[in-house]
């Protein structure tokens, strides 16, 4: 299941939401996207029967099937899904399928029901009390997915692993270049014994230590570190290193370095953004970058070890990187959504359809400057 290396775009931790389910009599639809694994208690019964940590519908007595619609916390290219039926043994669905759509804004459940949906996982047999994994080969960008179970039953968790592709119209100005929701990603880590370094890039504040990155205690002369590929090439202005919730196990010191390379190797040139700085436990540290050159990756070193809640790397995208992000986004949008945004940016209906026939736009030279400027936030 190689696609599991990609983040779960549907997770509540990324602000995903189950916006609709046609039935949830036995167990609430919101359970589908909880970050942790499903739990089970043999003694936990309610007035409707056994309480399950998942989504469970009533037994159908008529034709049809049940479904739930999930708004991805971060839109993106779905690489694979997991339909986890943990603890559902005699009440799991025998079959499931997954569809996806791409829409503007935050539509209502009724509007989503009328949207154009594309199948990304055909109706397939699934097993009870199992993590049913399905690779997705469609490489378009989606904003919502619809899980259909045939005909009814219970699903504990629904994971939608994929590559974040944020809307580049909201990447102008100063942003968190490392944020997962903007396209940042962990590409290297010395140790993640207690919790994943990906937590460093999540939105919001950490509530407990498990919401951050914590490594094992070092018993040598080295130090722990994390390398992050930024959303795109950009200039770092300020940094936040947050040790909130880490009281007796925060690092003593930390530093942040950057490099400008597509794929940094051992010969890459790294330079200081934040020199080695003393840290305090359970504290948000705000620091200015000491370097002006743009970077594509940053490396956070903690000395000698210890846990962090969040890392924020605030700055602006390089103009060329922002333009490339716009063109890639337009290339990945389904046709209907692409035509809509091109028209809203000033392209006529006929020219918008002509631009689509000439995709990939990332090759350059296709969009009129005025249309491209609208996407870059240069037209006000």
- Considering DSSP H and I runs of 4 or more, what fraction of the residues is helical? 10-25%
Shape: flat
Distance between the termini: 45 Å
- What is the CA-based Rg, rounded? 23 Å
Instruction: Spell the H/E element sequence.
Output: EEEEEEHEEEEEEEEEEEEEHHHH
Q: How would you sum up the major sheet? A: 8 strands, antiparallel
Beta strand count? 19
Q: Structural class given helices, strands, pairing? A: mainly beta
Percent range for β-strand residues: 35-45%
Low-confidence regions: none
Number of helical stretches of at least 4 residues: 5
Nearest-integer average pLDDT: 94
SSE topology sketch:
Blueprint: E1 17-21, E2 45-46, E3 49-50, E4 55-56, E5 66-84, E6 95-101, H1 109-113, E7 118-125, E8 131-135, E9 141-150, E10 154-155, E11 157-164, E12 175-176, E13 185-189, E14 224-242, E15 253-259, E16 271-278, E17 284-288, E18 295-303, E19 310-317, H2 319-332, H3 335-344, H4 349-357, H5 369-375
Antiparallel strand pairs: 1-5, 2-3, 4-10, 5-8, 5-9, 5-11, 6-7, 6-9, 12-19, 13-14, 14-17, 14-18, 14-19, 15-16, 15-18
């Amino acid at each position: 299941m190689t696609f599991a290396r990609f983040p779960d775009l549907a997770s509540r931790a990324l602000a995903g939401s189950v916006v609709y389910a046609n039935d949830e009599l036995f167990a609430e639809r919101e359970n589908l996207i909880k970050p942790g694994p499903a739990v089970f208690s043999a003694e936990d019964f309610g007035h409707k029967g056994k309480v399950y940590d998942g989504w469970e519908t009533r037994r159908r007595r008529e034709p049809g099937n049940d479904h739930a619609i999930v708004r991805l916390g971060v839109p993106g290219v779905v690489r694979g899904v997991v339909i986890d039926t943990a603890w559902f043994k005699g009440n799991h669905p025998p079959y499931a399928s997954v569809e996806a759509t791409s829409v503007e804004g935050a539509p209502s459940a009724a509007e989503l029901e009328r949207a154009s949906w594309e199948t990304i996982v055909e109706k397939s047999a699934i097993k009870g009390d199992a993590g049913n994994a399905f690779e997705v080969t469609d490489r378009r960008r989606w904003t919502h997915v619809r899980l259909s179970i045939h005909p009814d039953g219970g699903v504990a968790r629904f994971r939608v692993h994929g590559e974040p592709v944020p809307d580049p119209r909201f990447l102008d100005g100063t942003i968190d270049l490392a944020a997962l929701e903007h396209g940042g990603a962990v590409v290297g880590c010395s140790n993640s014994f207690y919790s994943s370094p990906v937590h460093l890039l999540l939105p919001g504040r950490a509530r407990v230590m498990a919401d951050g990155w914590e490594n094992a205690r070092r018993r040598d002369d080295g130090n722990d570190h994390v390398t992050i590929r930024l959303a795109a090439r950009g200039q770092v202005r300020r940094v936040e290193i947050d040790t909130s919730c880490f009281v007796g196990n925060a690092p003593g010191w930390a530093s942040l370095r950057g490099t400008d390379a597509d794929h940094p190797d051992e010969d890459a040139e790294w330079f200081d953004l934040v020199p080695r700085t003393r840290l305090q436990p359970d504290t948000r540290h705000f620091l200015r970058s000491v370097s002006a050159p743009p970077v594509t990756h940053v490396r956070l070193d903690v000395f000698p070890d210890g846990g962090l809640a969040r890392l924020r790397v605030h700055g602006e995208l390089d103009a060329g990187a922002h333009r490339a992000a716009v063109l890639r986004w337009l290339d990945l949008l389904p046709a209907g959504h692409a035509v809509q945004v091109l028209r809203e940016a000033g392209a006529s209906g006929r020219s918008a359809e002509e631009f689509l026939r000439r995709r990939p736009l990332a090759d350059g030279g296709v969009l009129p400057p005025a249309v491209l400027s609208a996407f870059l936030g240069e037209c006000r």
